[in-house]
Every structure is written in C-alpha cells, then in structure tokens.
Design goal:
The protein is α+β, with helices and mostly antiparallel strands. The chain has one domain: Immunoglobulin-like (Sandwich). It is built from 2 helices and 11 strands. The strands form 3 sheets. Strands 3-11-8-5-6 form a 5-stranded mixed β-sheet, with no helix packed on it. The protein has a 4-stranded mixed β-sheet with strand order 2-1-4-7, with no helix packed on it. The chain is globular. The chain starts with a helix and ends with a strand. The N terminus is likely disordered. The protein binds copper (II) ion.
C-alpha cells in the first residue's frame, strides 16, 4: 500500500499546482508561450472601451491568432474617478450564436477576457479565431449604481475573415 499512497501524494501535488495555475482568471496567461519573431505575424486590433461604447480599430480581422489591445482612454471632461460608474471596463471576445446579433447576449464562452481596465490603462491578450461573427463586449455591472455596461451599449461586432 506504500506505493499507492506515494502515488496519491504525487497526484495531490499535481492537482495543487494545477489549481494554483488555474486560480488566475486572466485567460491570456494560459496561452502557450511561443518564441517571438518566428512564424507568421497574426493580426492585431486595438479596441477602445469608453462610456458607453466599444470601438474596435477595424470591423474585420484576419482569422488566426489575433492580438487584442484594449484601451480605456481618458475622456475629455476629465474622466471618472475610482468607484464611479464606468471607471473600470472589460473586453470579452466571444463568438456569436448562429443568426444572433450583437446586443442580445447571445454569444458563446469567452475566448479572451481582459478585465479590470481602469482609465488610462491598457491590456493586451491573444485569441485564436476562426472565420465567423464575434461579439466584443464589456460585462461590468457597477454595483453601487447598478449600471450595466452591456445594456448601456458596450458591445460591438467583429467579423473574422
Ligand atoms: Cu464597461
């Protein structure tokens, strides 16, 4: 029985490591690391998150590995402080269900989720996208004011060709 218990300890350790790695909700970090400078360069797109819209730098993008750079630019009137509605945004990339349109919350599991982007900050992540229709969205709901960013209009269509 000694072998069995050693095996169990090993399994428990592996599980603990897996849980520790999985505890980070930043999906981008689970992307396998590839050596820079090799292979074909994937498409990249900048997506500005603002109150209350999502503005991709392009409405279409080539299929393959797509790099998303999510920005949250300061607004002309001085922006908004921490704790105010719209102080933090998120970029979720998900494939639209067949026949669905943006703004209907009819999208699949997130393929990329860049969360907690404050004014003046930006975050970058990659997703491998097949040709199709995708929805970019911010699903933040500000608790104090009960402001639902998606309902405010924070969604946009992205066509992958
Ligand atoms: Cu938002």
């Amino acid at each position: 029985m000694k072998r069995g218990s050693v095996g169990l300890v090993g399994f428990a350790l592996l599980t603990a490591v897996a849980v520790a790695c999985g505890g980070n909700d930043d999906d981008a970090r689970t992307t396998p690391i590839t050596s820079a400078g090799t292979g074909p360069a994937g498409a990249s797109i900048t997506v500005n998150l603002k109150n209350w819209a999502i503005e991709p730098s392009s409405a279409t993008v080539k299929a393959g590995t797509v790099t998303f750079r999510a920005t949250h630019e300061e607004e002309g009137h001085g922006g908004h402080g921490a704790g105010e509605a719209g102080a933090t945004h998120q970029l979720v990339v998900a494939r639209l269900q067949d026949g669905a349109d943006v703004g209907e919350t009819k999208f699949g599991a997130p393929l990329l989720n860049l969360a907690d982007i404050k004014v003046g900050e930006e975050k970058t992540g990659k997703a491998v996208l097949e040709p199709g229709r995708y929805e970019l969205s911010c699903l933040v709901v500000d608790g104090d004011d009960n402001v639902n960013h998606y309902e405010k209009g924070m969604y946009a269509l992205l066509i992958v060709e």
